[in-house]
């Protein structure tokens, strides 16, 4: 039995029941694929349910306010996905009359849609023979065929795409693609896969040469930079606080945060109070400063680690217009800020 037949047979028996597997509507497939980028199914499923409930059509999503989209996305991270999601919905609704492109090449032109997502939509919705290659697929193919080319290299991307394209079942491209992704997610797991029940174990090079832990190969990325964030959590006598919207193209674009002061290292209360006396929001102002967390909270992003301290700043009156503390959960904030808001219990 050839690779694709074994795989599809395994899938027919072992696949999970997931809502996006009950439709070929490109809006729902596209939405699920964007949510599941960098996200496991168990984490992404509630977000998929929330988005489809609030925005049942591409027109509903296109007409949404970006702040509302970001708020619903809160906790998933990689917020550029949400902004691209909204931008693409607007494009499809306005310029394409609500119809998604029906070919791989045209799908690639959509903002936020790369090779993997375009392949998934093209095969699942339009039966195009275009193989998907994501982290799960890299793992399955590298182990079974013993491919040691780094998966995060341009050579690796081309090699694995060609291999997947050779293997895909031309009569059942949608089933094949969903099967190989599911197989990597639930059977050929990154750590400690149960090879005793794997239908491919007899021919798997990684299994037979004891290379399960060595494959796939990935080039180590540059060491993450350390940054030290200090958030000023203003609290006034009339129970208002300050949130500011981040600008520019850096992390957390368009999300809200407390006023931020970056330092070269973690600072103690005495040093920090001296430092912020000239801050634009505190100059010539009486305030009481309290450190909320003695140990810095380490928030790890892909290229930087944020060592974070939250400072409670009690003032009589806010220096600028603020928001009622009871409304603070209405704003889209990074998960780091959201966790603090929940813990502080505004």
TrEMBL record:
Residue span(s) of domain HhH-GPD: 35-186
Cofactor(s) it depends on: [4Fe-4S] cluster
Cofactor: how bound: Binds 1 [4Fe-4S] cluster.
Assigned keywords, A-Z: 4Fe-4S, DNA damage, DNA repair, Glycosidase, Hydrolase, Iron, Iron-sulfur, Metal-binding
Catalytic activity: Hydrolyzes free adenine bases from 7,8-dihydro-8-oxoguanine:adenine mismatched double-stranded DNA, leaving an apurinic site
UniProt-listed GO biological process terms: base-excision repair; mismatch repair
Gene3D superfamilies, alphabetized: Helix-hairpin-Helix base-excision DNA repair enzymes (C-terminal), Hypothetical protein, domain 2, Nucleoside Triphosphate Pyrophosphohydrolase
InterPro entries: A/G_AdeGlyc_MutY, DNA_glycosylase, HhH-GPD_domain, HhH_base_excis_C, HhH_motif, MIG/MutY, MutY_C, NUDIX_hydrolase-like_dom_sf
Enzyme Commission number(s) from the entry: 3.2.2.31
Any one GO MF annotation of this record: oxidized purine DNA binding
Keyword Hydrolase: yes
EC class (word): hydrolase
Record-stated family: Belongs to the Nth/MutY family.
UniProt function note: Adenine glycosylase active on G-A mispairs. MutY also corrects error-prone DNA synthesis past GO lesions which are due to the oxidatively damaged form of guanine: 7,8-dihydro-8-oxoguanine (8-oxo-dGTP).
NCBIfam families for this protein: mutY
Record's protein name: Adenine DNA glycosylase
